[in-house]
Amino acid sequence: MSVYIIAEAGVNHNGDIRLAKKLIDAAKYAGADAVKFQTFKTEKIIGKYAQKAEYQVDNTGNSESQFDMVKKLELSYDQFTELKNYCDEKEITFISTPDETDSLDYLANIGVPLIKIGSTEVTNLKFLKEISKKGLPIILSTGMSTLGEVELALDTIYEQGNSAVTLMHATTDYPTMAEDVNLKAMVTMREAFKIPVGYSDHTLGNEAAVAAVALGSVVIEKHFTLDKAMEGPDHAASMTPDEFKGFVNAIRTTELLLGTGIKKPTKKEEKTIEAARRSIVASRDLDAGTILTEEMIEFKRPGTGLKPEFIKFVLGRKLKNSLKEDQLITLDDL
């Protein structure tokens, strides 16, 4: 099964549905399986006196509150319905993260295939219960979380009868530095909870996602934008459409490199075996009736004859036919 690649549009539409549609087009162009947005009512998730996160200050300055910044990035439910329909037309899966109950109900009603939960909600157990009751598959990001917090979140979800959960390792910092990625934590969660894991990539390059796929990630998510210089909290740490296309190609190439895990020669190796492997041959001209000893045989190319491992069936046997130096020794000669 291929790695599921989510193009995280998030709020990089800047509150403009025309930009949101262009992001959908870009995600389709790049080869993503799905494009994801964030659905919320700002008044329900952010207090008017909440301060911005450090990365938000770095990317947007400190002249406005977190509430004012996020309010500008809000789209209406009608607009999200329009985006869902546009995704259907473009044949790319629409996903959006609900940040409160009304948005959760709305998204479930318009038929999203799964619920993606952001890292901010890992400890919001009441909301996790409401999400779980929808009966949809859940992808849960775990940035900022301890293993114990993740365990409690999973227990809460399971208690509602929902076991279709994929955990996403993440570092909630934009961009994430290499020393803070800690991909082995993804492996730790898979081993601890025995469920699929993925990686939400906030680094600037492809390397972390490629490594995550090599470690067994089944889902990869990454932010993308039409222009890194646009105003907003996430643009600077996002990929352009062409960069995202290269990102998708790198992941697909990694999947090819990983292969099936079955150790056997490839079709091309099977042809190479004949030229490169060795066979049992006569070390010199030998007459019929000769009893074969070790000094009478050598292992040389081509590999079309008896393999060296079959020497025990050759030594001590009498030749029925005379052989020339370097001639393959076959069972018919014995």
Radius of gyration: 30 Å
CATH superfamily assignment of the largest domain? Aldolase class I
Which structural class should the secondary elements be placed in?
alpha/beta
Strand portion: 5-15%
Order of strands across the biggest sheet? 3-2-1-8-7-6-5-4
CATH architecture label name of the largest domain: Alpha-Beta Barrel
Uncertain residue ranges: none
What is the CATH domain class of the largest domain? Alpha Beta
Helix content: 25-40%
Per-chain topology:
Layout lengths: L3 E7 L6 H14 L3 E6 L2 H4 L8 H7 L5 H6 L5 H14 L2 E6 L2 H9 L5 E3 L7 H8 L5 E4 L5 H13 L5 E6 L13 H10 L3 E5 L5 H8 L4 E5 L17 H18 L8 H10 L2 E4 L14 E4 L34
Parallel strand pairs: 1-2, 1-8, 2-3, 4-5, 5-6, 6-7, 7-8
Antiparallel strand pairs: 9-10
InterPro entries: AFP_Neu5c_C_sf, Aldolase_TIM, NeuB/NeuA, PseI-like, PseI/NeuA/B-like_N, SAF, SAF_AFP_Neu5Ac, SAF_PseI/NeuA/NeuB
Protein name: N-acetylneuraminate synthase
Pfam families: NeuB, SAF
Task: Give short descriptive properties of this protein.
334 residues, alpha/beta, Type Iii Antifreeze Protein Isoform Hplc 12, 2 domains, two-stranded antiparallel sheet, 12 helices, 36% helix, SAF
